[in-house]
Amino acid sequence: MIESIALQMAMRIKAAAPEHPTSINVLKYSLSLILNAVFIIAATLTISLFTGRTKEIAIILVSYAILRQVSGGIHLKSGMQCVLCTTGAFTVMSLIHFSPISLQGANAISLILVLIFSPSNIEKQSRIKKEHYPKLKVISFLLVAANLVIASPVIAISFLAQSLTLIHRKGGE
């Protein structure tokens, strides 16, 4: 669904500016990414109005996205799968309550995972050169480590969920 909407939008853009060098496929890809994010944000915030967890959802949306940008992670096969899984996961995460011990446990697991696996699966998703990957690992670690001081259960669950998406099997995804 997202891909077909993006294709329709790309064809309209290309028809309006046929001389522009950007291909329909490149436009479609870019629009798919934008639509994916918009649908996730809109759906998750809409659901949060019914659960009463809008503040938590906002924190999850921001913290997850920031860590994902520098650490990478798995990608689902379609944009709609991503929207449905992410919206569902974020909604469930906003409802979870952590004890202080669980909070620190989630932080510790996230720290270990980002040290071992980040950055993960970003080669085709980013234009960042491989020589900068160690910096991405350090940034990922520092982001997660910051929650040792902040001590936010919402950020801890968000970082834990994102850190779990970094895990990959040896020899390929």
Automatic annotation (TrEMBL):
InterPro entries: AgrB
Matches recorded under SMART domains: AgrB
Keywords attached to this entry: Cell membrane, Hydrolase, Membrane, Protease, Quorum sensing, Transmembrane, Transmembrane helix
GO cellular component, one term: membrane
GO MF annotation, one: peptidase activity
Pfam families with a match to the protein in the record: AgrB
Domain of life: Bacteria
GO biological process: proteolysis; quorum sensing
Transmembrane segments: 29-50, 96-117, 138-161
UniProt-recorded name of the protein: Accessory regulator AgrB
Gene source species: Paenibacillus anaericanus
